[in-house]
Amino acid sequence: MPKAKEAKEKKSTQLSAKKRKCRHCENSFSTRVIEEHENSCSSKQEISQGFEELVQTFKYPDAQPSLSTGFVDESNFAEGLLVLLSQEPEATMMPSDAGSMDLDPGAYPPDADAPQPNWMPQIDDIKVEYHPKSHHPTKFYHLDDYAAQEGQPAEEPVADQEPWKPFRTHLDFEIAELMLDSHLNVGQSSVLLSLIRKAIAQLADFTLSSTDELEKFWTAARETWGTGFEHKSVKVDYKAKEIEFQVSTHPIWSWIEDIIDNGNIVPLFKWDAERCYRYNGSKWERFINEPCTADDWWNIQSALPDNASPVFIIIYADKSCLSSFGTAKGYPVFARCANLPADIRNGKGTGGGCLVGWLPIVTEDAGETRKKGYVNFKHIVWHKSLYEILDSIWLHGKTGFLKTCGDNIARWLWPIILILSADYKEQCVMTLICGLGSNGPCPVCLVPPDELADLSKTFNLQTKENMMKIYKQAQELNATDKEELLKIYGLRDVENVFWDFKYCDPYQATSWDGLHAHDSGLFGAHILPELKCLVDVLGKEYVKLLDTQ
């Protein structure tokens, strides 16, 4: 047999060996995820069967009179199903108050010292402990085995062979995308099309002939691949005058459904919290390397109803990416799915981040700038606008949503905002604290401003419940007393949009801003200038080389 053919057959055999059929659903999955899928598939099929019986109860109440609730017609069916799904044992439910976040980690304690039969731990061994609701047994690994498993690249989703559709060719799409990114007007686009026709060598592949045709293709692309952007109006009163702002949104729930419906992406999801440990020779030391291995995920899953599948969302807002739309200005809000591996969720392909909205910019007024009322007005606009962007997940975040996913498993999905990614200035807007110079400069804890540098002390954390309580108390006071109370905590007189989203605590969701504190702060503002002074001794060409690197 020729060597080339033999190598090809060997490679084909190796590729096929990487996949195995599930014992329950007959679908094929890679060996890296098949064990987790089979465990999930087995339990989820039981859940799905239970839901099917519940559906039959509603549609045919005469068959089981004792279970009839009156939800007989189609208009009441979905509502009745939602009511029964929400009736979970009180021990596993979060209190109905939207502001409540009293999670008890003791309800689901770790078993960090629980031994595994016939396992003699060695130095650097890894222990992975799963949330009790996942019904997965604790697993032990040698460090090399764990590193090989975690380091294995995620299986690439099956690529669309013609992802540029509905454009006729790939070249058509590339040129149209360039025009869009360059914000060209109709006149500029017409000139560019004329120049391309003169210069392009592959004329047969370039079929666009007018801006009208270009707009038709973009319209077809939006209709084919997504819902496009919706434009909503936000009205805010300032000095007895109602001011209107436009907010552009792409429904987050639509983006979530696109990911959940993808049979190549869903098997990569982490649905359950984990606690990972490394053996140092005498004891197990815990480490955190993904959102699912941290405490917040564990505590929230403990508070969710049994059989609930959380879909954790990372929200990122960046005011530095300011863009103009005609006479209006806005800056983008992005969403990422924390259930997916870092290389997938932080990528640009399927399963990566999604632009979910544009927040309006309030025009600065020289006569109003820095006035407390005007500053609060801008914060109200920000939070009301963000609510419009998050609106599509508000109800599902309180009741959950039953959906059959791309792997043909029915899950009770709960979209939850887990992380707010922003620099310090943006964190102050998200948490509605007054920031530096106030009595509450930290978005996470209640450290006084004169003790920020004292790292030997620990201060009480800011919490959703506590901040809501203070805000509500302030609203019952007169203007002077209200200002004094809010000043004590450095809190703004604005209602926080995140307070109304269940299981989301904005003060827990924010974290230390390493980029601006170290990369652009300590290094960029202090270490780099000193380094340049030292390199300058070697000559200007070396300073230039340092700048380019």
Rg calculated over all Cα atoms: 28 Å
Give the number of DSSP strands.
Answer: 14
The largest pleated sheet is described as: 8 strands, mixed
Total of helices: 18
Shape: globular
Q: Give the quaternary arrangement of the chains.
A: single chain
pLDDT averaged residue by residue: 80
Q: Could you provide a short overview of the structure?
A:
By secondary structure, the chain is of the alpha+beta class.
Walk me through this protein's architecture:
The chain is α+β, with helices and mostly antiparallel strands. The chain is built from 18 helices and 14 strands. Strands 5, 6, 9, 10, 11, 12, 13 and 14 form an 8-stranded mixed β-sheet that branches. A 4-stranded antiparallel β-sheet has the order 4-3-7-8. It has a two-stranded antiparallel ribbon with strand order 1-2. Helix 2 crosses helix 3. InterPro entries: Plavaka.
